[in-house]
């Protein structure tokens, strides 16, 4: 497993663990096929499968300690390798969709922390993440808010910003997390678009540094 995870083909620079884990994937949402997880990072994963997966995107489940997390993945590279004397397919995948709680579990797993958190602790953490509206102006300057809103507008996840209207957003702060050797703030913005006929909701994850100079959109 360590040899597979350490191949030079895998160019990701994010913190990852090479600890093997059970995985499964599906292309139709019904039939799940077994896979072996080779490594995992907060941006993607590497898995071994018994056969080629022709789809551009597919769903994956990974068992991290005792927790099962789900993600939508897209292959970024693919090799055929030898495993146990048999040819297998090795895929480098990037996340294109993952729930916030599952992503937190991935980060804890790659950091060597306990994946499962006691229910009480989870409730306290969830409460702490919710930023009250009064705190938004204090913690996130309006100029920086507008910058984040523009990222949402570009992605079709928020109507163009109007100074006279309150944006249809809600903030969820995720604390500090390591990113390429430095600590970055995590923030999820829940947004929606309502054109009078239908309403669409989105959740967009950001990471940014202390000065708000570097902003990374994770999904």
What does this structure look like?
The protein has five helices and eleven strands; from the N terminus they run αβββββββααααββββ. The protein is of the alpha+beta class and 219 residues long. The strands form two sheets. Strands 2-3-4-7-6-5 form a six-stranded antiparallel β-barrel. Strands 8-9-10-11 form a four-stranded antiparallel beta sheet, covered by helices on one side. The longest helix has 13 residues. It is globular and about 65 Å long. The protein starts with a helix and ends with a strand.
CATH architecture of the largest domain: Beta Barrel
Rounded to the nearest angstrom, the distance between the terminal CA atoms is: 28 Å
Order of helices and strands: HEEEEEEEHHHHEEEE
**Cα-based radius of gyration, to the nearest Å:** 19 Å
Give the averaged pLDDT, no decimals: 80
What is the total domain count? Answer: 2
Low-pLDDT segments, ≥5 res:
1-13
Question: CATH class of the largest domain, please?
Answer: Mainly Beta
CATH H-level homologous superfamily name of the largest domain? predicted glycosyltransferase like domains
Tell me the overall shape.
globular
- SS content category: alpha+beta
The main β sheet shows up as: 6 strands, antiparallel, barrel
If strands are numbered along the chain, what order do they take across the biggest sheet? 2-3-4-7-6-5
CATH topology of the largest domain: Thrombin, subunit H
Strand content: 35-45%
Number of strands: 11
Number of helices in the DSSP assignment? 5
Helix content: 10-25%
């Amino acid at each position: 497993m360590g040899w597979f995870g350490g191949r030079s083909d895998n160019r990701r620079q994010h913190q990852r663990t090479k600890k093997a884990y059970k995985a499964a994937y599906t292309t139709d949402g019904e039939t799940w096929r077994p896979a072996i997880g080779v490594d995992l990072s907060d941006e993607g994963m590497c898995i071994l499968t018994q056969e080629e997966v022709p789809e551009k995107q597919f769903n994956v489940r990974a068992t991290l300690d005792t927790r099962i997390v789900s993600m939508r993945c897209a292959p970024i590279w693919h090799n055929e390798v030898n495993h146990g004397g048999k040819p297998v397919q090795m895929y480098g995948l990037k996340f294109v969709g993952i729930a916030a709680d599952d992503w937190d579990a991935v980060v804890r797993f790659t950091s060597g922390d306990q994946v499962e958190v006691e229910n009480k602790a989870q409730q306290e953490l969830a409460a702490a993440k919710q930023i009250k509206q009064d705190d938004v102006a204090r913690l996130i300057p309006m100029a920086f808010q507008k910058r984040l809103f523009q990222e949402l507008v570009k992605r079709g996840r928020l109507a163009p910003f109007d100074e006279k209207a309150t944006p249809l957003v809600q903030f969820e702060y995720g604390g500090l997390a390591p990113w390429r050797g430095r600590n970055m703030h995590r923030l999820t913005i829940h947004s929606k678009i309502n054109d009078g006929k239908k309403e669409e909701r989105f959740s967009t994850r950001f990471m940014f540094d202390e000065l708000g100079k570097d902003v990374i959109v994770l999904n």
